[in-house]
Sequence to fold (1038 residues):
Amino acid sequence: MQKDPHYYIQGVLDANRLMLSRTITLIESALPAHQEMVRTIIDHLLPHTGNAVRLGITGVPGAGKSTFIDSFGTLLTRLGHRVAVLAIDPSSTRSGGSILGDKTRMLNLSVNDRAFIRPSPSGGTLGGVARKTRETMLVCEAAGFDVIIIETVGVGQSETTVSSMVDFFLALMIAGGGDELQGIKKGVLEVADAIVINKADGDNKRRAELACREYQTALHLLTPGSKDWSPPVLTCSALKNSGLEEIWEMIGQHRSVMLTNGEHQQRRKQQALDWMYFLINDGLQNWFYNNPEITGQLSELTKEINEQTLSPAAAASRLLQHLKH
Amino acid sequence: MSDHPDFLKWEEHAGKLMKGKPLESLNWQTPEGITVKPLYTAEDIEGLESVNTLPGLPPYVRGPMATMYAGRPWTIRQYAGFSTAKESNEFYRRALEAGQKGLSVAFDLATHRGYDSDHPRVTGDVGKAGVAIDSVEDMKILFDGIPLDQMSVSMTMNGAVIPILASYIVAAEEQGVTHAQLTGTIQNDILKEYLTRNTFIYPPVPSMRIVADIIGFCSKNMPRYNTISISGYHMMEAGANSVLQTAFTMADGLEYVRTALQAGLDIDDFAPRLSFFFGIGMNFFMDIAMLRAARFLWHRLMSRFNPQNPKSSMLRTHCQTSGWSLTEQDPYNNIIRTTLEALTSVLGGTQSLHTNSFDEAIGLPTDFSARIARNTQIILQEESEICHVIDPLGGSYYLEALTGSIISEAQKIIDEVEELGGMAKAIESGMPKMRIEESAARKQARIDQGLDVIVGVNKYKLKDEKIDFEIREVPATVRDEQVARINEIKASRDNNEVEKTLAAITEAAKSGSGNLLELALPAIRARATIGEVTQAMEKVFERFVATTRCISGAYASEFAANPGILETLRKRTERFLGTHGRRPRILVSKMGQDGHDRGIKVIASAYADIGFDVDIGPLFQTPAEAAKMAIENDVHVVGASSLTAGHKTLVPALVEELKKQGGADILVVAGGIIPPGDYDYLYERGVRAVFGPGTSVIDSATRTLDLIEAAAG
Fold:
C-alpha cells in the first residue's frame, strides 16, 4: 500500500479507475493511519468537487432499484454523462462478512466505460456508512464523474442519512396489492423530492397508474420541503426503458428551480454545516467510548446499576465529568 | 410404537445393546428433513395410499409398464458429445457397435446459448463440454451413417431448442426420413434453466411460448417423439435434496401442462409424450423411494385434468447417475459409486439410464472410461439376474414408509409453489432457487466437517494421487474448423432466401401467431445458422438476464456442532480487518457461457459466513469484464470457477486483463473441474492456486487467506 497521499490525489485527478478504487478502499478502511491520509486527500480534492448532480435513490427490496439504476445510468451515459454508482449493501452476516451482489443486477452499466460502480459493505455503524459514502462521493466527483447515484435500501435510518448528502432524493416504489401506503415509512415521503412507480409495464401498467394517483393524493397532505417544489409522482419501466428520460428532465427542472431560488446553494451549505455537526457528534462519541479511563469506569458503574446501588442519572453525570478535563 | 406382539421384547434387547443411550439416538435425520428409524415394521406402512398397488396400473408406484424389466430391460442411453460433429459421430458409432441402444447428444455451451462458434463471447466454450453445432450441415455430419428412422435420439437442448430441433428434423429429411418416423426426446425444459444451469436465452414468457410451439408442432407431426423431458437432474446436481428434486420437477411438469392446455391442446394430445429425467445420488433407499414417489405424485397431479388416456398420467423417466458425486481424488472409486447409483435407478424402475464415466470429475470421457460406464449397465442387465422381478423392493417396510414420506413432504412444497401461482411465478419470486442453494450450502458444510463421508475426499485420503489413465483433450483447432465451415456455408447459400425465412420468424415472434418451430424449418433448410435463427427471435424476445441472489448463514448454521473450525477462520478475517482496515475481499466470477453456478454460490455463502466480503460477478462475463469489476471493487483476489473446460483459455486471459487494466497485484485463483495435468499450465500463467473438485471450503479459504495475507504484507 502506497503511503503518500499525493499518489492517490494525482491518480484520482487523472481519472485513473484503479486509483479511484484504491482511494475508496482507504476511505472505507478502519485504520487510523488510513483515516489520516484520507483527510489530506479529501482536503486536496475538495476544490475539484461540487459540480456533480448528487442523486439519492431508495426503495423497498423488490422495487427494482438495481434494474432502474442500470437503465437510468445507461441512459445518462448515452447523454454524455459520466456516472458513479455507490451502493450500500446491507447484507452483512453475523460473521461481519457480506455478500455484495449488486453489480450482477446492473449488467449494462457495470461494463460501461463511462460508469463506475462500487458496492460497499455497510458493516459497522451508521455514522461509518455516512462518512464513507460522503467522502467516496467527493472523490468520484474529483475523478470527473458528473452524476453520482447513491443507492440505499429502505432500512434503518439510511434514507435520512443519504438524503442529507444529495441534491435530489428519489423514492422508487412499485404498485402493491391495494393499500399502497401501508408499510412505507412516512419519513421516506417527507424527504423524497419525487416518487417514481417502477414496473409500469404489461399487466402491471394500470395498477402502477392507480398507485401513482394514490401517492399524489397522499403527498398533497404533506407540506413540501420547498415552496417552489411539490414532489411529483411519476411512473416508469426500467425493464422496458420507458419513462426514464422524463425522470431525468424532472431532475434537471428541479435543479434549475433550486439554482434560481437559491435553495440549491442553501441546501449544500446546510449539508456542510450538518456534516460538521455530525462529525462533532461522531468524534465525541468515538473519543468518549475509546477513552480507557471512561471505559474502565463504565464497566464498574454498569455493575452498580445492575445491583441497583446507583441511579442511571448519577452514573451518566459522573462519566460526563470527563468532558470537563 | 408398534403393536407387533414381540415389539417390547425387541425394544428391551436393543436397549441393552445401547449401553444406556436411548434408542432414539439411532434415528437419522436425512437432509430432506425425514426422520429415519433403525427399524420399520408392518405398522409403519399401515394406511399408506401408495402401498400394495400393481405395476402398469394407477397410481404406477411400482412402475409404468405391467411387465417392466421382466418383459424388456431399460434402455442403455449414454449421453455424449464433444469437439466436432465428426469426432462425436465416430464416438457414437463405436458405442452403438458395443451394445448401446439409444443416442443422447451433448451440445457445447455456445450452441446451448444460441451463439455460432465465431461469436466473440464464446472463444473459450466451442466444442468443450459437448459438440459444436452451427448449422444443419454439422447436424448431418453428427448423424452420418446413423439411420434416424431407426435410432431413438435424445437431445439435451433447452435454450436454442428451436434451431436445434429444426436442424435435427431437416437432417432427417435429407436422409429421406419423414417427421412421423422420428423417435427420441428433446429436453426442452426451460423452467429448470432459470433455477440451476442458466443455459437459457430468452425471458420466461417467450420461452414458454417456444415450449408450447414445440409441443404443438410435434403432437401433430411427430407422434413418436417426446416433446419435453422434465428434469430434476440439474436441481440435484445444483444441491437439491431428493424431496426438493421431486417437488420442483413435479411443479415444473404442472406448469408445462397448463401452458399446453392454454395453447388450446387437449390433455391427451400431449401428456403421453411428456417424459421425465431424474438425477440419482448416493442415498440408496432414498432415491429408489424418490422414483416411486414421483410416479405416485404425477398420477395424482394429472388426475385433476381428467385425462382419458391412461398414458397421460403415467410418469416415464430417464435417469442419470450423479456427476456431482464423482470425485477427482482416488477416481476409480467413481466406478463403484456409479454402479450403486445405477442399481438405485433400476430398483426405482427407470425406463432408460445413463451411467457416468469415472473420469468425469477430471475431464471428458475417453473410449476406455465410456466402455466401463456402458458395461456397468450391461452387467446389471445381463449378469446380475435382477431383471426377472418387477419392483423387487415393493412391500419393504422401510422403502414403502420412505416412499410415503417423500410423497407427503414433496406435496407440501408443491402446494407452496401452487400458492405462489405455479412454478413460473415461484421462479420469479426466487423461492425454489433459494431452497436449492440453501440445501447445497448445508451439504457442503456437512462434507467439510466430515459428517457426510466421501471416501478419498474427507476420509481415507490417498497420500499421493497419481493419474494413470488417459485424459481426453479437446484440440484447440475445433473453433477454427467450425468457423471455416460457417464461412463456407455463408458463401454458398442463397442469402435472399435466408433473409426472407428469418424475417418470417421475427414476424411470428412479434405477432404471437404462427408456430416458431414450423417457421424455423425453411430457414434451416436454406442453411441459416443456429445463431441466426436465435437472433431472429432475440430481436423481439431479447436475451434474459438472471439476477444473482445469494443466501448467507446456511453454511455456518450446519457447523453448530463444530463451531471451532469456523471460529479459527473467523478470527483470522477479524485479525486481517484489524491489521489492514478492511476485510479480505473476493470476487467470485464465472466467465464464458458456463452457467453452472452452484459452486460459486456455495463459495460466496460460505466465505461470507467466514467473514470475507464477497462480490459475485454476473454470469457469462468476459475476462475483461471480470477484470474491470475486480478493479472497481478493489478486491484482493478473484476466484474464477470453471466446470466446462474453459479454464485454459479464460483464466489466463483474466490474469492478462488485470495486468492490462493496472490491477496486476490482484490475485487470481481458480476452482472447478480442472484436470491436475493443467495445474502447472495455469500456475505458469500467473494463477496462484487451483482448487479441484472435492476441495473443502475450509481448505480453499485457508489457502486463499494465506495468499492474501502474504501479498498484503
Notes: The radius of gyration of chain B is 26 Å. Residues 89 and 415 of chain B are 45 Å apart (CA to CA). Chain B has a mean pLDDT of 93. The first strand of chain B starts at residue 28 and ends at 29.
